[in-house]
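Lecture notes, unit on protein representations.

Consider one protein chain, 109 amino acids long.
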Amino acid sequence: MYINTTIVGGNVVKDIETKVSTNGSIAHFSVAVNRVYHTKTEEVKEVSYFDVVAFGKVADICVKYLKKGSEVIVEGRLKQEKWEAKETKETHSRIVIVAESVHFPAKKE
């Protein structure tokens, strides 16, 4: 059995970067997710940043509705990207979220 699903909710860190390939739109953005927890003596605030990539219609929706500071919930899967640096030949990798759907929380009034 193979399971690879993740959901994160937070704020878009900066305006979305877009590209158009022969297969359609590609959108890259980062989401900051806040977490607050308590120890015996204090409240601790922690922020995690997640890189997200969206393709096709999902990318088009992200470009249309998201900008720096937007609240978003991203549902998707984790993907490990690997590459080799041209100059040093070092291998690098990172984990990104491939967005399969995005949701926009209702604004609080």
